[in-house]
Automatic annotation (TrEMBL):
Example GO molecular function: DNA binding
Species for this entry: Chryseobacterium geocarposphaerae
Domain Response regulatory as annotated: residue spans: 10-126
Keywords, ordered alphabetically: DNA-binding, Phosphoprotein
Signal sequence coordinates: none
Name of this chain's protein: LuxR family two component transcriptional regulator
Matching Gene3D superfamilies: 3.40.50.2300, Winged helix-like DNA-binding domain superfamily/Winged helix DNA-binding domain
SUPFAM superfamilies: C-terminal effector domain of the bipartite response regulators, CheY-like
Pfam family, any one: Response_reg
Domain HTH luxR-type: 149-214
Amino acid sequence: MNPPDITTTRFLLADDHSLIRQGIIFLLEDFELEHEIFQASNLQQLLESVKMNSIDLAIIDAHFPDGNSLSILEELKKMRPEMKILIFTGIDESTYSLRYLNAGADGFLSKMNEEEEIEQAIRKMLDFGEYISPLTQALLKSSIKNPQLINPLSALTERELQIAEMYAEGLGNLEIAGKLDVKQNTVSTVKKRIFDKLEIENLVELIELIKNNQ
């Protein structure tokens, strides 16, 4: 009589801090399931690991030295549509969780949580394929009435978005004014309004927002 097949669950732990990865490894050892663990400390390693291995659950940080994981979620899902993604990060859940879920993540978990909550989140990801915290559930309900929670660019008018995209393309006030046939101080005024609405302070943040929300 042949022994029953034992299914191996493949995890990918992607975080640039080895202590975080090690902490999750210790946690998974208590799950009493046959598993294999792959690790990545930057976006390039993350992409390569997903490409090379049939990952069941990827536990991924938001920020890496070489970029933001938000920008590659769509690519990861195209590579492995069946793979579940849990964002495990220190960034503010109330500000960012909906953006990551909207971009393709299946769960969002704050590193500020207690170990018990972290374990519960991972178990829910394994059992149901998603983890939505009470806070994010409330945000999802609010987002029906306020789309800006998912895509902050929706707060901009058509002209503001047009100018924001020009800034993101590398154009300056003078060039934008010339292209739109308006005064340069008008462009400066719109720029200030854009920054106020998006709650950002510089062009680097603006470029990141546009890249991640279009």
